[in-house]
Design a protein that fits this description.
Helices cover 42% and strands 16% of the residues. By secondary structure, the protein is of the alpha/beta class. A 7-stranded parallel β-sheet has the order 3-2-1-4-5-6-9, with helices on both faces. The protein starts with 14 loop residues before the first strand and ends in a 7-residue tail after the last strand.
Length: 256
């Protein structure tokens, strides 16, 4: 279910870009923002899942793109401005996770995650900055609660997301005088397809889920719509005095 009511038009007139919008948190966020009245450009590598995201939501416009490509930041921003004329909200959600124990981490495993989880959102935000400044916009980075504690076997992913949190705080200070807010959400254990492409075996995924639940005070896995609700609140006009925050959406995992 979407937490945002179809009659809630708090974001009417706004234009949003959501990366990694084909599944999971990205799909839920694109739909919630559209339900709140925004026109949403849903970015992802595969046209099929993007079409599914947009199904039933006329305010969602799919844009197939690989955010790690050299020209992707400028191409995405140019496409959005050509089709919608403005850009108010950028949600840097796309991310990949690959397993690898210490001693077995390869350069390719490291660089692949860095490219998607850290470099791409930094360059896309940079390309979008003039439009965001003109609109008095907001950037939302999607991090992970895992970055707040140790995660054997998943530390490459966690380190890229922890770096994204530093960017969030740094950009918030640097861009505040330019009228741009920068915030982040740090999801905990959320039911999304990201683990299906992680390289973990089914047994490893089962063990990871058990560990996550054991370290989550609320004792369950969260839903993508619970994260998208937080994102929608952070980009709403009511959050206009909020910047630089990294909001855990993790069932208490950070403090448990």
């Amino acid at each position: 279910m979407n937490h945002t009511s179809e009659s809630d038009n708090t974001l009417r007139g706004k234009v949003a870009v959501v990366t990694g919008a084909g599944t999971g948190i990205g799909r839920a966020t694109a739909r919630d923002l559209a339900a709140a009245g925004a026109r949403v450009v849903a970015v992802g590598r595969r046209p099929g899942p993007l079409a599914e995201t947009a199904d039933g939501f006329p305010g969602i416009h799919p844009l197939a793109a690989d955010i790690t490509a050299d020209t992707a930041p400028d191409d995405i921003v140019r496409s959005v401005l050509d089709s919608h004329g403005r850009l108010d909200i950028l949600v840097n959600n796309a991310g990949i996770v690959r397993g690898g124990t210490f001693g077995g981490v390869t350069r390719e495993l490291f660089e692949t995650q860095l490219a998607t989880n850290l470099i791409a959102p930094a360059l896309l935000t940079q390309a979008a900055l003039p439009a965001l400044e003109a609109a008095g916009g907001v950037v939302v980075n999607v991090s992970t609660a895992v970055g707040q504690r140790g995660w054997p076997g998943g530390w490459v992913y966690a380190s890229t997301k922890t770096a994204l949190e530093l960017l969030t705080r740094s950009w918030a200070v640097e861009l505040a005088p330019r009228g741009v807010r920068v915030v982040a959400v740090a999801p905990g254990a959320i039911e999304t397809p990201i683990a299906d492409h992680s390289g973990f075996t089914p047994e490893e995924r089962t063990a990871t889920r058990a560990w996550q639940i054991a370290h989550t005070p609320l004792g369950r896995i969260g839903g993508a719509e619970e994260v998208s609700w937080a994102i929608t609140q952070l980009v709403s006009p009511g959050a206009s005095f909020v910047t630089g925050v990294v909001l855990p959406v993790d069932g208490g995992a950070v403090v448990g």
